[in-house]
Design goal:
The protein has 147 residues and is mostly loops. It contains one helix and no strands. The chain has one helix spanning 2-16.
């Protein structure tokens, strides 16, 4: 019972802090209303003419070449030279071993020297930036030989 009384007392104290009417509150806020004219656009159904595709019958003529008389006579059929390469097989004799008597002694195996040349790629020198100063002479004088 005490809790209910305490609860109502708290509500009364809280509500006592708020004013009941707006006449006692001082504020600078003021609402003003102004009528604004809004234009209303009506839509009218106006038919817009669109181009209509109309098929026009056309005759397409393809010229066909026709023979006509020329002052030079061309024999028919015209002789054409044809060159044809025909391979003829040639009978080659088979090689055979011939033994001959040699008057001097041949060492076997006979020493044979073969020179083989292998290309070796040589690296090219790369460019190095060398600054040249104007106050330093890069040539030697030919007069006094101070070294």
């Amino acid at each position: 019972m005490n809790q209910i009384i305490f609860f109502f007392a708290c509500i009364y104290l809280v509500s006592a802090g708020y004013p009941e009417s707006d006449d006692h509150v001082s504020t600078t806020y003021e609402e003003k209303t102004k009528p604004v004219h809004i234009p209303i656009y009506k839509k009218y159904a106006i038919p817009i003419p669109h181009p209509v595709i109309v098929k026009i019958p056309q005759e397409i003529r393809i010229p066909i070449p026709q023979p006509y008389q020329v002052p030079v006579e061309i024999p028919h059929p015209y002789p054409v030279e044809v060159i044809k390469h025909i391979e003829i097989p040639v009978e080659k004799p088979e090689p055979y071993v011939v033994e001959k008597h040699v008057p001097y002694v041949v060492e076997k195996p006979y020493p044979v020297y073969v020179e083989k040349k292998f290309p070796y790629p040589v690296a090219k020198p790369y460019a190095v930036h060398v600054p040249i100063y104007k106050h330093v002479y890069h040539h030697s004088s030919k007069g006094k030989h101070w070294h």
